[in-house]
What does this fold into?
Amino acid sequence: MHITTFYSFKGGVGRTQALVNVGVELALRGRRVLLVDFDLEAPGIDTYPLPKRYMYECPSVGKQGGHLWVMPSGHQDEGYARRLSEIDWRTLYADRSGYLLFEDLKEQWRQTLAPDYVLVDSRTGHSDVAGICTRQLPDSVVILFFPTDQNLRGLPKIVNDIRAEKTGPRKKAINLSFVMSNVPDLDDEDQILDSRIRVFSETLGYSNLSTIVHRYDSLALLNQVIFTADRPKSRLAREYHVLTDKIIEQNLHDREGALAFLRDITRRRKGASPKMSRTEIESRLTEIRRVHEDDAEIIQRLANLRMHEGRFEEADTLWTRLVEMGARTSHVLLRRAESRAMTGNRDGALGDVEALLNTAGTADFEVGRALGLLSSLSPERLTTVSQATAIQDLENEGRFWVATLLAREEQGLTSARDLLTQLHVTPSVPASLHDPVRNQLVLVLMGLGHVDEALKLIDESPTRDTSVAETFNRAMAAWASEGSPRKELFERVLGLNDDNGTANYAQCLAVTHAVLDQQEEASQRLNQARQRLASQPEPQFSCWRYRIVPAEEFLKDVEAIRDFVSDRSVRPRLLDFAPSHS
It folds into this structure.
C-alpha cells in the first residue's frame, strides 16, 4: 500500500481534480485505489461522479481488474461544521493517542481493502491536518502550486517539514513531487514563467518538475468531467498520465515503479543521482529484491546492474535465482558464466558456456561472447565447438561471423575450418558470401599448414589473377608447399599493388620486395608496417605465419622479415606448419 498525499498551499490549482483523475487512471491500469478526502474544511472528492457513501466502491473501472474506492470526509449534514470545529487536534495527539489512531486507520485500509494506492486530498495552508497528511500518513507527497509569491512564501515550511522527517525520530524518507498547475498556455516571450520556474526550483530545492498541468478552458470542467476516463486523448488527460507515471515510479512495490527505478539507475551509469545517497539507493534495491523476488524481469535487471557495478558474487546469486525460476535462457547462462569467471568459479563458468553453446536460438553475439570466455578459460575446447547447437542454429551469415572469430585463436582454427568448409559447400549460402567464405577458408587452411588445399581453393577462384590478396596468398602457399619462393609469383603481386593502409598490407609488400631482392623497398615497407601498427596497436593478421597475433608478436614477425632480407636461411613461420617441408 503506497500512500500519496496531494497538497497545495493555496486553493485554485486543481488539486482535487488532479487527485481524482490520477486515481481513476491508476484504476484503469489495473490498480486497487482508495481516494481519501482529508480536506475537512472544503471537502470535494464526493462532488465528482463517484460513489458518495462511506468507503464505497466505484463500479466498472477499466478492464484490467482495477478497483476504486472513495472515503469521503464525513457525513455532509447540517452538523458537519460543528462536529469538525469540536476536534482539538493537539489534544487528540497529546492526550488521546491521535498518532496511533491514524496508524490504526492505515492498517484498517490495508486489511479491509488491500489497496495498491491510497491518494489523500489534504487541506491547504499550514494546519494540524496538513501535517498529518503530509508527514504521518504518506509515502510520497505531490506538491501542486501556481507560481505566485504567496505560494513561494508558504511552501518552503511545508516542504522543509516533510524533508525533516528523514532525520526525525521515525527516519521516514518521504518522496516529493512538484507540479506546477493551472498554468496558462500562453507565449512566454518575456520568459516570465521560465524565471518563476527557476525561482521555485531554487527555493524549494528540486531539480525538475514532475509535470506541468496547463489551464484547460472547457465548460466540461463545470460538470467535473474525469478526463482520464472520459476524454483520455485530451492534453489535460495526457498531463495527468505523466503525473500518474511519476507516482507509480515512487512506489517500489509496484512492478512498474520498480522497473522504472532500475531503468533510471542504469541510465545514470554510476548508479547515483544528486538527490539520492548510495545508502538510499542500496536500501531501495534491497527492497525491490525482497518484494519482487519472483519477478524474472526485475531480478534480471538487478543482476545486470550488479554486473555493471562489478559486484559479481551478488550477480551470480541473482542469475542462479533466474535459472531456478526456469529462466534458463542464453542471456542468463552467458551472464552467469561471466560473473562466475570474474569470481574464479572456472568450472561453473565453463558449465554455463557449454550449456549456452547447446541452446538453440542463441544470438550470434552471445555465441561470440561465449567463445571469448571459452578462449580465456579453456582454449583447447575451441577445437570441437563447430558442431555446437547454438552455432549450427545460426543463419549462414552468423556462422561465417563465428568462423572469423574462431580464426582469431590458434586453438579455434580447426573449428573455423570446419565451419567455413561447411559454408563453402552449402548451396543455400548467398552469392554475397561466396568470395568472403573462400578467402577466409584459404587463410585458415594456410594457418593450419594445409597449403595444398589452400592452393586448390585459390585456383578455383574467378579473381585469382586480379586480386592482390589472392595473388599474394598463392605465392606464399606455393612457397610453403615447395619449400622455396617463386619470384615470378611475387612479381605479379607488385603488378596488382592496391594499398589498403593496413599494417598487414605493408608487411605483405615487405615480404614481396624481400623475395625480389629489393632490399631498400622491403625496409621501407617494414618501417611502414611498424608505423601503421603504432597508430592502431591491435591484434593483426601476420602473413609471416598466417595467423592473427597480438601486436607485440606482429612486431617480432616484422623483425624476422628484416632478418630474411639479409639472410635467406630465415624462413617464414608458415613453413613450420606445412607438413611437406617442416
Summary: Confidence is low (pLDDT under 50) at residues 40-46, 48-53, 79-86. The radius of gyration is 36 Å.
